[in-house]
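Hey, resending since the last one bounced:
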Amino acid sequence: MAKVFLVFGISGSGKTTVLTKVRNARTVSVGTELLNAYSRKFKGMDRDTIKFKELETYGLLSRVRSGVFGKLVKRTGTLMLDTHACLKAGDGYVQGLSLRDCEILRGRCRAIVYIDAKTKDILTRRKRDSSRRRASLSADELDRLRDISVSLSMAYALQLQVPVYIVQNDYIKDAARKIEEIIERS
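The C-alpha cells again:
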C-alpha cells in the first residue's frame, strides 16, 4: 500500500511547482485523475470547469472522486496527492474531500501538507498563468479562500488522525526540502 500525503494549497500557491522538486516521492494530480475519470461523462471538460460542474452534479462527482482515491491508495511507494482542501465555485465553495474520501484515506495518509504563499505572489502567479482559466479573485477573496482551506485541512486531519504541516513557498527549493523532511519523519 502507498504511503500517502495529501498536499493542499490554493491555486497559485506554487503547490504543483514545488512538488516537481520533491525527491523520493511520486506526485499524482488528483485533478488530472478526476478529469480522466469524468472524461466519459463530461467530454471536452478541462480541470477548471470541473469545479463548476461540482456544484451542479455534486453527488455523482463525489462518488467518482471516492473511486479515484480508492484506486490511488492501492498503489505502492510514496505518493504526494496534489489536490485542494476547498475550491471556490461560483458564489459558493466546495470541499475537496468527503467523509467517504476520509474513510478511504484513513490509516493510509501519513500527513497533510498545506503549501502557502504570500497573497500578492499568488495573485501575480494566477494572472501570469495563461494555461489555466482561474476565476479572478481579489486579495480579500483569496484570503477568505485560504482561511477556509486551512480550516478544512484541520478538519480533514481530525478525520484522518494525522498532523498538518504548513509550508511557506517563498523559495521553491526550500519548500521542497521541507516537504522531503516531512516525508522522512512520517
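The longest strand covers residues 109-116.

Sorry for the duplicate.
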